[in-house]
Amino acid sequence: MNDGLRSPRVEEISWGRMVVAGVGTGKDFKLWPGGGRAWDWRETGTEHSPGIQPADVEELLEHGATTVVLSRGMEERLEVQPATLKYLAERGVTVEVAETTEAVELYNELAEHTPVAALIHSTC
């Protein structure tokens, strides 16, 4: 789980592009205490609707996150399935859902003192 590792900071965010400290540059990311990776929606069959599903957040919890930030995209077109919110609540995880730039700001703030993870979508 989380061995006191800090979640990587999102250094830049713009339409279709993110720079994450120690992780790299890309479009969408899964971030957690101690690291992260590109978020490939095809792994779980995620689409804008019905949106983020429980399978998308499982990996975040495996890395010790106690808070999860879910970004809905710059135009908030990415939905979050109710089953995902239930899955996180049943595990005692605090969840924040926000537009992408707000989600990144919140995530970076939480990363200073909380084992936080995030799913960040940088386009619509």
TrEMBL record:
Which compartment or compartments is the protein found in?
Cytoplasm
SUPFAM superfamilies, sorted: MTH938-like
List the GO cellular component terms.
cytoplasm
- Assigned keywords, A-Z: Cytoplasm
Q: Which InterPro entries match?
A: AAMDC (IPR034096), MTH938-like_sf (IPR036748), NDUFAF3/AAMDC (IPR007523)
Query: One matching Pfam family, short form?
Result: DUF498
Keyword match Plastid: no
Taxonomically, the superkingdom here is: Bacteria
Q: Does the keyword Cytoplasm apply?
A: yes
Q: Which PANTHER family match?
A: MTH938 DOMAIN-CONTAINING PROTEIN
Name the UniProt record assigns to this protein = Mth938-like domain-containing protein
Question: According to the entry, what is the taxonomic lineage of the organism?
Answer: Bacteria, Bacillati, Actinomycetota, Actinomycetes, Micromonosporales
